[in-house]
Amino acid sequence: MSCGEPHETDCSEVLDHLYEFLDSEMPDVDRDKFKQHFTECSPCLEKYGLEEAVKKLVKRCCGHDDVPSDLRSKVLGRLDLIRSGQTVPDHDVTAAPQES
């Protein structure tokens, strides 16, 4: 996705890190670059608006459900694998090995 115009921050970078922006999990200097990009690029602004709306809807509909105690550690473990560039297995890597 791109509006076809050159930007200081490339559209692919913005879209790759959109959830970090939405979750305020990036340095302020990067947030400022993204905000500037959204003022210049309507396709990215539209994608941002859509993802923000979905996030709000999920929070409203599912924000009160109890989360299983081990879910957070499983999710964080998978994120660590992804960030390190390792292949993420399809099976639960935190489960005890099954006996044959």
Structure explained in plain terms:
The protein is an all-alpha fold and 100 residues long. Helices cover 58% and strands 0% of the residues. The protein has five helices and no strands. The protein has helices spanning 11-16, 18-22, 28-40, 42-62, 71-83. α3 crosses α4 (42-62). The longest helix is centred in the middle third of the chain and has 21 residues, at 42-62. The chain is globular, with a radius of gyration of 18 Å. The mean pLDDT is 82.
Bin the strand percentage.
under 5%
Integer average pLDDT: 82
Overall shape: globular
Strand segment count:
0
What percent of residues adopt helix (DSSP H or I)?
Answer: 55-70%
Taking all Cα atoms into account, the compactness measure Rg is 18 Å
**Total number of helical segments?**
5
Order of helices and strands: HHHHH
Q: Give the N-terminus to C-terminus distance in angstroms.
A: 48 Å
Brief overview, please?
The chain has helices spanning 11-16, 18-22, 28-40, 42-62, 71-83. The chain is mainly α.
Task: Name the features.
5 helices, 58% helix, 100 residues, mainly alpha
Task: Annotate the secondary structure layout.
Layout (H helix, E strand, L loop, with lengths): L10 H6 L1 H5 L5 H13 L1 H21 L8 H13 L17
Helix pairs in contact: 3-4
